[in-house]
Amino acid sequence: MSVAFTKEDSAETAAETVLPDRVISPHLNLVTQAGLKALEQQLQLAREALETANAIEDINGRRRLSAGPLRDMRYFAERMRTAQLMPDPPADGVVAFGSLVTFSRDDGRTQQFRIVGEDEADPAAGTMSYVSPVARALMGKAAGDVVNLAGKEIEIIEVA
């Protein structure tokens, strides 16, 4: 029988089951202890989702539902492989990876962020990637220091 008549080998189904890999950052994969745990959890969730997808009898449904978990497993396995667990920041008051930094902007806003790895960064949750422009500008500075970022001033209030 020609593959033209078998749905599971159709171009439509193939396109649905081959997802492009998630982009891996070129930066070092620095992680906090919490970030490493989060990567482990995400990898486990992807494995569980793949197991669920593989339990589906319909081959087309199985291929569609397994595409995302397979892609996520590749991504999180690579991120786990390259993860570099960083020690807690020193208590010397200098901004470093893992520091909780409180700063004020020249528009009057006061913000607080923990500087973390790229995968655990979530500004809405109060974390920012160590490769972000703000984090890079703050690294190595201490309370009272003022840094210029894109023509705006940021004053460090506290480093914990």
Strand tally: 7
β-strand amount: 15-25%
Q: What is the average of the pLDDT values?
A: 91
How much is the radius of gyration in Å?
22 Å
Shape: elongated
Largest sheet: 5 strands, mixed
Strands ordered across the widest β-sheet: 5-4-3-7-6
List the secondary-structure elements in sequence, H or E. Answer: HEHHEEEEHEE
Continuous helix count = 4
Give the N-to-C terminal Cα separation: 68 Å
Structural class: alpha/beta
Low-confidence segments: none
Helix content percent band: 25-40%
Please tell me about this protein's structure.
With 160 residues, the protein is an alpha/beta fold. Helix content is 37%, strand content 20%. The protein has helices at residues 11-17, 33-54, 59-82, 133-138, and strands at residues 30-31, 84-85, 100-105, 110-116, 127-129, 146-149, 152-159. β6 and β7 (152-159) form a beta hairpin. The protein is elongated, with a radius of gyration of 22 Å. The N and C termini lie far apart (68 Å). The mean pLDDT is 91.
What is the compact description of this entry?
This protein is about 35% helix and about 20% strand. The protein is α/β, with parallel strands linked by helices and about 160 residues long.
Task: Record the SSE blueprint.
Elements: H1 11-17, E1 30-31, H2 33-54, H3 59-82, E2 84-85, E3 100-105, E4 110-116, E5 127-129, H4 133-138, E6 146-149, E7 152-159
Helix pairs in contact: 1-3, 2-3
Keyword list:
single chain, about 160 residues, alpha/beta, five-stranded mixed sheet, two-stranded parallel sheet, 7 strands, elongated
